[in-house]
Amino acid sequence: MAMVVGGGDCAALYFYLLPLFVWITTLLTFCQGRQYDHPAQYRYSFIKPASSFSLPLSSAMPATYDYIIVGGGTAGCPLAATLSRNYTVLVLERGGTPFANANVSFMKNFHISLADISPKSASQMFISTDGVFNSRARVLGGGTSINAGFYSRASQSYIKRVGWDAKLVNESYIWIEKQIVHRPVLNRWQRAVRDGMLEAGISPFNGFTYDHLYGTKVGGTIFDRFGRRHTAADLLSSANPYNLHVFVHATVHKIEFDTTGKKPNAVGVIFKDENGKKHRAILSKRCGSEIIVSSSAIGSPQLLLLSGIGPKEELEKLNISVVLDNEFVGKGMSDNPMNSIFVPINGRPLKQSLIQTVGVTKLGVYIEASSGFGQSKDSIHCNHGIASAEIGQLSTIPPKQRTHEAIQRYKRRKRNLPHEAFNGGFILEKIAKPLSKGQISLLNTNINDNPSITFNYFSHPADLSRCVEGIRIVEKILKSKHFTNYTKLDDETMEKLLNMSVEANVNLIPKHTNDSKSLEQFCKDTVITIWHYHGGCHVGKVVSPDYKVLGVERLRVIDGSTFDYSPGTNPQATVLMLGRYMGVKILRGRLGKEAGV
Ligand SMILES: Cc1cc2nc3c(=O)[nH]c(=O)nc-3n(C[C@H](O)[C@H](O)[C@H](O)COP(=O)(O)OP(=O)(O)OC[C@H]3O[C@@H](n4cnc5c(N)ncnc54)[C@H](O)[C@@H]3O)c2cc1C
Ligand SMILES: *[C@@H]1O[C@H](CO)[C@@H](O)[C@H](O)[C@H]1NC(C)=O
Ligand SMILES: *[C@@H]1O[C@H](CO)[C@@H](O)[C@H](O)[C@H]1NC(C)=O
Ligand SMILES: *[C@@H]1O[C@H](CO)[C@@H](O)[C@H](O)[C@H]1NC(C)=O
Ligand SMILES: *[C@@H]1O[C@H](CO)[C@@H](O)[C@H](O)[C@H]1NC(C)=O
Ligand SMILES: *[C@@H]1O[C@H](CO)[C@@H](O)[C@H](O)[C@H]1NC(C)=O
Ligand SMILES: *[C@@H]1O[C@H](CO)[C@@H](O)[C@H](O)[C@H]1NC(C)=O
Ligand SMILES: *[C@@H]1O[C@H](CO)[C@@H](O)[C@H](O)[C@H]1NC(C)=O
């Protein structure tokens, strides 16, 4: 099959032939019943590499856009699809497309994708100053293209507190769910965890539901039953293709402002294409046109700072001309600490599962689980479900000591470890609302580099005591009759495993669970991330309740950077929902009943 050719007349020709090509391939794939198996990287005619930006556009497209969305991620894609119904929309995404990338498309490659640290990878690794390894999305679809797929809505009380329109929230969730969310098929491990949680008192059983309810439940997933990932990028199929341009490998370096008026007015953005060439995209002068930053909890504050919106002194240190002094940009960052216990399984290799079932406790901790398999000791295919040493989650090594050398040492030792070290699963606890806060600050003016990121895990004592409670709950689940009946671990095996747990870099049940002080140490030493970091552009501090950047005109931020708490047990459902929700809100605001949504 053809690929898009990136330059010159050839691309122009391609542009005209594309509708025909799409029609034929759609027909072919439909006849073969393989709609999701499209080999082309650019699935939709409106997606193109950034280098083709300066080519003459179709006459139907104006040279300026009603909306410029920076970041085609979890919030950006549903937002673009919705706004394009009635307005011209440009999406600039720094990563490539997820459509022909096996690392993205298959659940079995979850950890492989995270371990890929090349500049072309769909994930960009970062290490917070806390010493915890972490990842950011760098691909169309954003987090939904690299995440663990679990889908669960925010609680009713969260929605009320934020002040969202509950009816539109429900409609927006449903809009997402119909397109990309699936009901998981539970394997033995997930069933055992579910039953163990119920026995440990996390009740009632709420069955399969997207709703956030106390007790144990099975949630949704963006993986279908064949282990294929569906992402926010798939939501672009709901767009009006004549009103939308999506450029990939388009890294926005700066938002430009007209500062001659009363307030700074956003007018366009500067971005670089895959060849490093600079381009300028310009906002339409029509009343209501806006630049919307959806670059994630790290990318959005970083871009605001680089564009001159942030703490004055910090900007001046890097010679960034100040457009607006706002001390809160990049502040209030937090990441929900995750601690886990590995449970080895005697016997048959366990099927991989990411997160499917969750315990919502009244103690402010969520319990989830994943399982992995001991396929081959030498390869990266050997993992522990969602956590593996290769992605820096060396959980028996305290955060600051988790270096690249430590990973290499682990890889060498891994060959000598027994099979049991890899066959099993994690039961994890995540703190619902961490009170510990941190910040991001610029290290340089290069948007491709990570800023300095600090989360200050467990700096607030309440977070630490909640972690201790969580570990005790996990222990209860492990010791439940249902669970032990499933794992069938005798004392002798247990001892052998405990002995090797350090080398295997996995946690087993801590020895001193009745000692809070030692459990506190366990929490600090084994903390990893569940990648639910959020904040940096909080509502009321950086943006208004309708996500308009305070103090400037024609600029919004819509994504996970606006959250003070991560919604639901896992955030993606609500980030996706927010993209759709704000798209509809904006259309209704401009068109009233005429919007037809
Ligand atoms: C490994 C991992 C596992 C996770 N597991 C789950 C899970 O199972 N369930 C769940 O609910 N949540 C999960 N999450 C969290 C969830 O995926 C994120 O909270 C969510 O995707 C964030 O959405 P966002 O729109 O804020 O940012 P993103 O989805 O990250 O979107 C931001 C986009 O902006 C682009 N961008 C950034 N800067 C620029 C720039 N300067 N120019 C152009 N483009 C730019 C990025 O490339 C990216 O595509 C996980 C996250 C990760 C990383
Ligand atoms: C907006 O788009 C929708 C869907 O294409 C259409 O039904 C509606 O009439 C449009 N509204 C206006 C005011 O153009
Ligand atoms: C997938 O990841 C592996 C390493 O983790 C890397 O070698 C490979 O190039 C990646 N594939 C793609 C298509 O990006
Ligand atoms: C939204 O849906 C939830 C169930 O998913 C329901 O409890 C709630 O009442 C609904 N809210 C509105 C306003 O319809
Ligand atoms: C800022 O500008 C001054 C004066 O031009 C220069 O001396 C200094 O090195 C610059 N600092 C940075 C971080 O670029
Ligand atoms: C233990 O597991 C077996 C199947 O492996 C099942 O038949 C039995 O009911 C289980 N017992 C308990 C207490 O769960
Ligand atoms: C524990 O490991 C050490 C070496 O690391 C070994 O000498 C010892 O016999 C092991 N003990 C058990 C009970 O396996
Ligand atoms: C834990 O409790 C047991 C039994 O009550 C006791 O013997 C042991 O000393 C306690 N351990 C710690 C570390 O407090």
Automatic annotation (TrEMBL):
Residues passing through the membrane, by range: 12-30
Origin superkingdom: Eukaryota
CC cofactor: FAD
Span of the signal peptide: none
Residue ranges occupied by any Glucose-methanol-choline oxidoreductase N-terminal domain in the UniProt entry: 296-310
Stored InterPro entries: FAD/NAD-bd_sf (IPR036188), GMC_Oxidoreductase-Related (IPR051871), GMC_OxRdtase (IPR012132), GMC_OxRdtase_N (IPR000172), GMC_OxRtase_C (IPR007867)
Binding site for FAD: 93-94, 139, 252, 531-532, 560, 571-572
Disulfide bonds: 467-523
Record keywords, A-Z: Disulfide bond, FAD, Flavoprotein, Membrane, Signal, Transmembrane, Transmembrane helix
Family from the record: Belongs to the GMC oxidoreductase family.
Protein name (Swiss-Prot/TrEMBL): Glucose-methanol-choline oxidoreductase N-terminal domain-containing protein
Taxonomy of the source species: Eukaryota, Viridiplantae, Streptophyta, Embryophyta, Tracheophyta
